[in-house]
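pinging the channel bc i need a second pair of eyes. not urgent but kinda urgent?? the chain im working w is below, pasted from the shared doc
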Amino acid sequence: MFKIKICGIKSVKDAQLVALAGADAIGLNFYDKSPRCIDQETAAKIVAAAPARVAKVGLFVNAPADEVNKLAEELKLDWIQLHGDEGPEYLSKLVDRPILRAIRLSDDNHGEVADYVRACCHVRQLGGVLVDKLVEGAFGGTGETVDWTGLAGLDGFANGCPLVLAGGLTPFNVEEAISVVRPAAVDVASGVESSPGAKNLLLVRAFTTAAKRAFAEIEDAG
């Protein structure tokens, strides 16, 4: 399982710089309504240029399963990230890749989301559950933070799956977020950008440094 994922990579240069900065996963966005969306040709160049140690995660929103499978196979993606309204039965249609199921959390939908995660795991074991902030009309990338303290207090919320924390993370709050939530990994897009899709190397370096420090402190504490 990766620990630090930088999502919304749009260029070979950014992919290489993000890897050098210490991230161990990159997100390739195939949602055509996102400002971070890329086409297959660009994605292929990024995958080819990124180090083998860096996980390549394809992000999809309500895409036909055959389209997801085609891109996963042709691009040799390591993970499939579902960030839309796909139902649990959708998982059975996907190729053999770890699935990162994104869910959008509000103050009052904890039970509903936990039931959904359990239903997904009955169909197919998830590689991870990514928690983002519920913002009406958006599928993520809003820069809004989740209630970290509330999330930390949810028992069995992810049904035993690794928890990936997203939503409003920046170099300035990721250390606190990790110490409170204790996730398996963190995911950031807008928090390390100069503009949508344009990564700021200084922010990426600061983010990965802070995240690594926080994860190390957790490991040292046992």
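so The chain is about 35% helix and 20% strand. and Helices lie at 12-21, 40-49, 65-75, 110-123, 148-152, 174-181, 201-221. — does that match what u expected or am i reading it wrong
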